[in-house]
Amino acid sequence: MDGGARAVRSDSALTRRQYRAGHGAGMRPDLFATAAALRSLQPQAVHGTVTGLGGLAITLEGLGPLAAIGDRLRLEPPSGAPVLAEIAAFRDGRAEAIALGPINGLSAGARAVLAPRPALPVSDAWLGRVLDPMGVPMDGQPPPARGALPRATHAPAPPAGQRARLGPRLALGVRALDLFAPVRQGQRLGLFAASGVGKSTLMAMLAGGVAADVIVFALVGERGRELREFIEDDLGPERLAKSVVICATSDAAAPMRREAAYAAMTVAEHFRDQGRQVLLLMDSVTRFALALREIGLAVREPPATRGYPPSVFTELPRLLERAGPGPDGCGGAITALFTVLVEGDDHDEPVADAVRGILDGHVVLDRRIAEGGRYPPVDVLRSLSRTAPGVLDAHERPLVQEARRLLSTYAEVKDLVRLGAYRVGHDPQADQAVRLAPAIEQVLAQAKGEPSDPDQAFGALVAALAEA
Fold first, then answer.
1. Which of 42, 386, 388, 447 has its CA 20 to 30 A from that of 228?
2. Which residues of 267-292 are buried (b: 16+ CB within 10 A; e: fewer)?
3. What span, in angstroms and rounded, lies between the C-alpha atoms of 306 and 371?
């Protein structure tokens, strides 16, 4: 049927052009009549009825076979504004949807109309803007100009066999990362930390230190009061001009918080496909997973791992794999840094463990280091970049290995040093670590706004290792 409809549209367009040019003689007159009749038809909406409301789930009937998982609905209550919802499940011939906003005023019997699937008309006019996951401005300015072709927010990753290789080393502007967790263009890195350790501060440092054509921020479940603080204090007008901020605050519905991550990834893909180098900063993947858990439990999906339904661990790689280099010949890449909020400082909890296995490296922020006054509180012994062997030069690799060895040895004896029970002379390697580790720690300490690059970082490390 679809092919026939396309053929009719093609034939009718051809006959209209010929008719208008005065060459319609000899053509079948019934084609003209058919084309005119098709143009006069009004599109018919697919609609159903709300039959039940329970918690986050909305039960609907009458949508028929044209509705599918992921389709959007416009729910029309007897009074009040329409409510957007998304179909999340089918059960016993009924559809179950999750609202994208408050459902106050919605009641059984409300009309549900099938709406277009989510797509974003991204354009260069989005640069410098703060938007919600639907592309609606949050900065008080008019809506940005629409792109020529809207992009679907739920899109597959580029085919694995056709993706470009990772690019050259990318300077992050943070000494601890440039030394011990170096990154290449198109790499995906996780920032793992408990609450209140300094993830947001580190993200602000990265936003100011990484050389990128476009920066895309995904603020998923962010505190409402922190949005302007982040934009005005951490980002600033200069970096905002080349950035797109997608935000769904903590009071937004679960589908909106989930959609913030997909929308930000879609925006990043738009600029990557133009051949630009994109830095994607997402805070946080954990809140994305929590939104997925709310949706799954609302439609009665069984909890499997610490209350997380299986679909959560299916969606995580679908999102994270979209970042990285584009297809061969694209020229652009998405270098992505994802924060992971570990619950109770447990770095082996399910979301952290799953994300760590997907990404190309992980950086651990330690509360004890932060309490000791060293910022950023990166635990270099527990941090890893899987691309480090291909990034570090021949003269840099032994420096990093030696620094790691000294820090590891010092970690074993520092309690003895603090208690005054350590005796110099019993272990030469421990003596060296006790002497040099504080100098290495000073190299790792860096104030917010303090500039750095890999050459400066390795120069400072050489000087620290050379101290007597």
1. 447
2. bbbbbbbeebbbbbbbbbbbbbbbbb
3. 29
Q: How confident is the model at residue 199 (pLDDT cuts 50, 70, 90)?
A: confident
Taking residue 460's Cβ as centre, other Cβ atoms within 10 Å add up to 18
d(CA 207, CA 245): 12
Is there a contact between 358 and 368 (Cβ–Cβ < 8 Å)? no
Decide if 443 contacts 175 (C-beta within 8 A): yes
Per DSSP, the three-state class of 214 is strand
What is the pLDDT, as a whole number, of residue 22?
A: 43
- Distance between CA 345 and CA 459 in Å, rounded? 33
142, pLDDT greater than 70: yes
Listed in order, strand segments (DSSP E) in 92-213 are 94-99, 111-115, 119-120, 129-131, 151-152, 169-170, 183-184, 188-193
**Per-residue model confidence as pLDDT tens digits over 208-228:** 889 999 999 999 998 888 888
Q: Strands (DSSP E) along 347-422, which ranges? A: 361-364, 384-385
Residue 94 near residue 87, CB atoms below 8 Å: no
Place of tokens 């619950």: 343
User: pLDDT-derived band of residue 55, with 50, 70 and 90 as boundaries?
Assistant: confident
Residue 14 amino acid letter: L
Read off the tokens for 139: 């900065």
Rounded-to-integer distance, Cα 265 and Cα 274, Å: 14
CA dist list (Å): 348 to 38, 70, 361: 60, 31, 15
Quote the CA–CA distance of 371 and 194 in Å, as a whole number: 13
Residue 434 CA neighbour count, 13 Å, CB half:
19
Residue pair 196/224 in contact (Cβ under 8 Å)? The answer is no
The angle subtended at Cα 393 by Cα 392 and Cα 396, nearest 5°, is 80
Question: In terms of Cα–Cα distance, which of 195, 205, 288 is closest to 248?
Answer: 288
The SS3 call for residue 401 is helix
pLDDT at 233: 85
319 by DSSP, 3-state: which? helix
